[in-house]
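Subject: mismatched residue count in predicted assembly?

I count 666 residues in my input, but I want to confirm that the predicted structure covers every chain. Input:
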Amino acid sequence: MLNRRTIVAALFLAGMCASQTTALAQTDPLPSWNEGKTKSAILDFVRKVTQEGGPNFVKPAERIATFDNDGTLWAEQPAYFQLLFAIDEIKQLAPSRPDWKGKEPFRSILAGNIKGLVASGEKGLLQVVAATHAGMTTSEFDQSVAKWLATARHPTKKRPYTEMVYQPQLELLAHLRANGFKTFIVSGGGVEFMRGFAEKTYGIPPEQVVGSSGVVKFRMGANGKPELFKEAKIEFIDDNAGKPVGINRFIGRRPILAFGNSDGDLQMLQYTVAGDGPRLALIVHHTDAEREWAYDRTSRIGKLDKALDEGKARGWTIVDMKADWKTVFPPER
Amino acid sequence: MLNRRTIVAALFLAGMCASQTTALAQTDPLPSWNEGKTKSAILDFVRKVTQEGGPNFVKPAERIATFDNDGTLWAEQPAYFQLLFAIDEIKQLAPSRPDWKGKEPFRSILAGNIKGLVASGEKGLLQVVAATHAGMTTSEFDQSVAKWLATARHPTKKRPYTEMVYQPQLELLAHLRANGFKTFIVSGGGVEFMRGFAEKTYGIPPEQVVGSSGVVKFRMGANGKPELFKEAKIEFIDDNAGKPVGINRFIGRRPILAFGNSDGDLQMLQYTVAGDGPRLALIVHHTDAEREWAYDRTSRIGKLDKALDEGKARGWTIVDMKADWKTVFPPER
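Triage response: the counts match. Full output below for your records.
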């Protein structure tokens, strides 16, 4: 029954629903962030870009927020978690690969000698990627990631990796989405690896995950069904200058907010703030050796040096983990 | 004021709003589709995947629909519109490029000799792409597309290209979105070209457009601002077997509905129906020489041969444009 009265009633109710939603949102949306200038900078930014009729209003379609993953949404010490996954995979595959015992970097990995793996350099790393991220269909890879995430534990914190995420960031992602933002991951990590947990863990669907990738080929499987096969060939590295390129390729729109934690995020942050209108660039500074880790300019993982200087000079929002975050990780499940 | 009563009231109102939306949707969502088995197949599919508790229910997050663009969402005769754009650009740039007068394929284009352009083959086409789609920043390219779309007219229909879209498909896109689907373009067309009109014309935002692309580099512009520069090098062709690869790369989830019109869509359709649960594969068959064009197995543009055979054999939904579409193009503005 569609008549004028029905329509008016619907619009009236829709209006009430909207005000009701606003009323419900009056509680602190970022309870794990300590009060201070960092939290205020975030809340003020969200407020001004969503204020209809205000000078800084941004249409919902243009409220694009991009987040690095390693060290920004979840931890990255003692090594990128995707590398820890690859090491576990090597160990699991080893019984069927007796030749690995005498071959670097596999010998080092199987002996628990991470320094040996590091010494094998980029060539060694690519061999590890080829052995654990290629030579299988995308579905098979998804299954191995799912299995690992369900069972593996962080070497020192002893928690599942999906609990090694930052509670303040989960709140920020939710707050942005509640304010009409579309949240994306833009990370140097492998896109298929991240898609294995991004939706459940961060509420970010696969189509909003931008990452590094290998070449994938379409082929007909043995059962006559089409499948996608992962080849041992790098296709795209979504890091440093690759990040704005990835943003352009996958999102096609410049973010108004970008959040990183290392020099690998510098170009994404530069590209973000170079747009017209209100922009917010944020950097997690790992300053908390007690609850998480403390590292920056000289770290082998997540080096933050140039971006820290440029961020300070340009007034970007530098999050001091120790001072700004009331809690780091979510409560154990 | 957040108390129990407020929450109950909010939930109650939210419930009423939801039912109201349902009531409003009782009118025919596809008025430009004639009644018959094609329209029923579409409406039945949408109904069954959205029926909560039903055997074919699909969660909203998994309701991914992918549409080819040329010949599926808008027309593609007498040539792909992006090629017509490139030809117009060549003509406009010609005064500053006197060397083109003696050089193929430019000489043919400037003489209005399309056969000469075709005769120059892939090499000629790549030269045209290099001259019109590269050697500039992404912003400069966006501006040239916007200018062309605002002023150019189709050579025989004399309408703006953004009015050469199919009204029945606009209704289908809207109906899918109203039912929780996320609609994507997956097309052989250039991704940046399509993003120039997809949002306004189809309601499909840039981040849901998958297409072919050239290499883009990040660099610091003369003004010290970062920019993205388009190079004359093909990066990815999103056609044929490239379509499922593009879907995996950009969307990361298998569609439950895919719509194409040519052999270039075959692998996307195969990949779509190979998934578990309900799937719908659709093909526009151009059968309407009067209102649009009639072509299939022997056409140079939008050849539909293998996909037509396979579609018929496997019971895919073949849209007979002449019989199934009440109107083809939207009313003139």
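The longest strand of chain B covers residues 209-220. Marking this ticket as 'not a bug'.
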